[in-house]
Amino acid sequence: MTINELIAKIEQWHDDHNLIEGATDKDQVLKLVQEVGELSDSVCKNQDIRDDIGDITVVLINIMARNSLTLEECLAVAYDDIKDRKGKIVDGIFVKD
Question: What is the Cα–Cα distance from 48 to 39, expressed in whole angstroms?
Fold first, then answer.
């Protein structure tokens, strides 16, 4: 299955479960934070993180759908923001020049 097919299926799942009209961006951001916490737990325990990353992406797809945004659009904006950044990792943190 392609990424676009998966996104369409996830968007349909959100519609079928009333998570577009029946929830708010605030609700979904709180869910996103919960899912990021689960990712953090899995990373700290050196466990498989694929499901956690997938769950985070599912919530992000919901937020994008609620706001009529696409993954490509969001990634393009983010890339445009970082593409010319200069810097390096210092003690595990990216420090801009």
Answer: 9
Structural domain spans, the chain: 3-96
Compute CA distances 49 → 15, 39, 81, 85, whole Å: 26, 6, 27, 28
Q: Are 11 and 67 in contact (CB under 8 A)?
A: no
Per-residue pLDDT of the chain (97 residues; tens, 9 = 90+): 999 999 999 999 999 999 998 999 999 999 999 999 999 999 999 999 999 999 999 999 999 999 999 999 999 999 999 999 888 889 888 888 8
Helix (H) or strand (E) holding 89: strand 87-90
CATH code of domain 3-96: 1.10.287
Asked whether the whole model's pTM tops 0.70, one would answer yes
Residues near 41 by beta carbon (within 8 Å), at least 6 away in sequence: 47
